Amino acid sequence: MSVSASPTTVTARLLPGKPVAEKILTEVAEQVAALRAAGVTPALATVLVGDDDASAGYIRIKQRQAAELGFASPHVHLPASASQQDLHRVLADFNADPGVHGVLVQHPIPGHLDYDRALDVLDPDKDVDGMHPVNMGRLALGLPGPLPCTPAGIEALLAYHGVPVSGREVVILGRGATLGRPLAMLLAQKRPTANAAVTVVHTGVADWPRYTRRAEILVAAAGVPGIVRPEHVRPGAVVVGGGVRYEGRRLLPDVDESCAEVAGAITPRVGGVGPTTVAMLFRNAVRAAQRAVGQG
Ligand SMILES: Nc1nc2c(c(=O)[nH]1)N[C@@H](CN(C=O)c1ccc(C(=O)N[C@@H](CCC(=O)O)C(=O)O)cc1)CN2
């Protein structure tokens, strides 16, 4: 964690995401090996629209990881001028290709395009980001399906580090479709690693700190850099920095590093929730391949 470079006095235990991601990816590699032994090469297709440097970088990271794990990773790069129909055509082609088991459209896409409409075109069973409306519905109903990667990564991170969640008060600051809302549904489910009393609050609530200050586990999911400060944290609480904003490749987290002075445990700014998100992507992808060939 970069707190060592700041004057912050760290008292909180760190909750790194890297060992969590490594454990998940080791399991994924074993499942990939089993698929390949049965003659199936799992394939995770990626779609990049436009020339955003950061997005191109994340696609490269995913392709490198895919190769290490034994996935095929067909890739389509559409120009920034691509139309909604161009994007839909690419997705329809991947839907129709039985050799492609998972598909992701790297976010953000150019402003004239509608990400949600594109997601709607994607086969929900190939949606490895777990963001298709059908998969959100499955999550809401507690049915099996690909889970949104960052929420699933946060549940795994807390479980890995032995942070009890069941019966505890979790407050999520932020209600976005990629993190706050699905995480609330996930952590409220009846499972030993969930089963929490979950409150979702957002920055449009004038007195939001009243909620965050009572959290035993506080998840920042607002996408507002530095919004969570020590005075918003209950002493000894577990603080999870899920929300980030990207400025190019620079990651600006919601949680100010000085929160480590008050929290009992905290995710590091770098190597916290991020690596678990990528690991969950591959977990979703290998499961999609297993389902497609009847191994799931
Ligand atoms: N289709 C998707 N688009 C985007 C997603 C996504 O999950 N699906 N998430 C982000 C980008 N992203 C993956 O695509 C991603 C970004 C960053 C990390 C990460 O692990 N970051 C590191 C390093 C941070 C730093 O150097 O400052 C960390 O958190 O430790 C993983 C995934 C937007 N688009």
From TrEMBL:
Catalytic reaction annotation: (6R)-5,10-methenyltetrahydrofolate + H2O = (6R)-10-formyltetrahydrofolate + H(+); (6R)-5,10-methylene-5,6,7,8-tetrahydrofolate + NADP(+) = (6R)-5,10-methenyltetrahydrofolate + NADPH
Identify one Pfam family in the record.
THF_DHG_CYH_C
Q: Which UniProt keywords apply?
A: Amino-acid biosynthesis, Histidine biosynthesis, Hydrolase, Methionine biosynthesis, Multifunctional enzyme, NADP, One-carbon metabolism, Oxidoreductase, Purine biosynthesis
Q: Where is the Tetrahydrofolate dehydrogenase/cyclohydrolase catalytic domain?
A: 15-129
Ranges for domain Tetrahydrofolate dehydrogenase/cyclohydrolase NAD(P)-binding come to 148-292
KW NADP (keyword) present: yes
The pathway where this protein functions is: One-carbon metabolism; tetrahydrofolate interconversion
Q: Which InterPro entries match?
A: Aminoacid_DH-like_N_sf, NAD(P)-bd_dom_sf, THF_DH/CycHdrlase, THF_DH/CycHdrlase_cat_dom, THF_DH/CycHdrlase_NAD-bd_dom
Q: What is its EC number?
A: 1.5.1.5, 3.5.4.9
The entry's NADP(+)-binding residues are G174, R175, G176, V244
Briefly, what is this protein's role?
Catalyzes the oxidation of 5,10-methylenetetrahydrofolate to 5,10-methenyltetrahydrofolate and then the hydrolysis of 5,10-methenyltetrahydrofolate to 10-formyltetrahydrofolate.
Which family is annotated? Answer: Belongs to the tetrahydrofolate dehydrogenase/cyclohydrolase family.
Q: Under what name is this protein listed?
A: Bifunctional protein FolD
User: Which organism encodes this protein?
Assistant: Micromonospora purpureochromogenes
Q: Which gene encodes it?
A: folD
